[in-house]
Design a protein that fits this description.
Layout: E1 26-31, H1 33-50, E2 53-58, H2 69-74, E3 81-85, H3 86-94, E4 104-109, E5 111-116, H4 127-136, E6 140-143, H5 146-155, H6 161-170, E7 171-174, H7 179-184, E8 190-194, H8 195-198, E9 208-213, E10 222-228, H9 235-245, H10 251-256, E11 260-261
Parallel strand pairs: 1-2, 1-3, 6-7, 6-8
Antiparallel strand pairs: 3-10, 4-10, 4-11, 5-8, 5-9
């Protein structure tokens, strides 16, 4: 479980978003990896404007990992806001963990393909070319969360039986870690994850390169949504943070992470 170092409370004049520093609260936020980097960058701005403190941790939207969000909540972990794939959030609301009326779509997220830095970037501009890349790859990594579940249950099985067997024999689900991190460590020659989860490992000092979004009909856009804990003691402040994340002030940061903000 990754813990953010963002635990600061900055006391400045002129509180924003309807809160006063005298009544500052501490929020516990759990975010799926698809929105984690965006939230990590947005939290300091929210803290500076409101005086509230936000503790941020990450977990996958689903899967067997002990750090997967549903598994953490099943163990009784306290939270004020949870951000994960919208269908999984609805399940948490049905179980009584999340206030069903608080569910709010934040972003649209696409699945991307990545390769080690310096490696040739395969052409995946069409379905036929993408299929060829999968068949020719030596070792394929995919996530244990929403994007990987789609690949495992919908994409790989769509191939003819012989080709499906070939792809499955060299595809590995990554549990409890980022696929891009494993690519950077040399474990895979190609890997798949939400583009927003690949982005932090790219750039000048990164060891991974984003090839691009996978093509139709294999692409699946995931909506990541936020919900407030049914037993949260800071529901009002939690709502303020969600409203801030959905505001125009957050748009640029969100788009820089490869996500599309859901318009209010």
């Amino acid at each position: 479980m990754k813990k953010s170092p963002i635990f600061i409370t900055i006391c400045l004049a002129g509180a924003g978003l309807g809160s006063t520093f005298a009544n500052a609260d501490t929020l516990e936020v759990i975010s799926s990896g698809g929105f984690y980097s965006s939230m990590e960058k947005l939290i300091p701005i929210f803290e500076k404007q409101t005086g509230h403190t936000v503790h941020l941790s990450s977990g996958s939207s689903m899967g067997e990992s002990p750090t997967a969000i549903p598994n953490r909540l099943n163990r009784g972990e306290r939270f004020d806001i949870v951000v994960l794939a919208a269908p999984e959030l609805s399940k948490l609301a049905e179980k009584g963990y999340v206030d069903p009326n608080s569910q709010s779509a934040l972003v649209n997220s696409s699945i991307g393909m990545a390769v080690p830095k310096g490696a040739p970037k395969p052409d995946i501009s069409s379905a036929a070319k993408f299929e060829k890349v999968l068949l020719n790859a030596k070792h394929i990594g995919y996530s244990a969360s929403a994007s990987g579940t789609h690949l495992e249950k919908d994409v790989f099985p769509s191939f003819p039986p012989v080709e499906y067997k070939v792809i499955s024999s060299k595809a590995e689900k990554v549990v409890g870690d980022r696929v891009a991190k494993r690519i950077a460590e040399g474990q895979f020659d190609i890997g798949f994850q939400q583009i927003s989860e690949i982005k932090p490992f790219t750039g000048k000092y990164g060891q991974v390169e984003l090839v691009g979004p996978i093509p139709a009909p294999y692409q699946k856009v995931t909506v990541f949504a936020a919900g407030i804990g049914k037993n949260s003691e800071h529901a009002k402040v939690a709502k303020e943070l969600i409203q801030f994340v959905k505001s125009p002030q957050a748009t640029q940061i969100i788009e820089e992470q490869g996500l599309e903000q859901v318009k209010q």
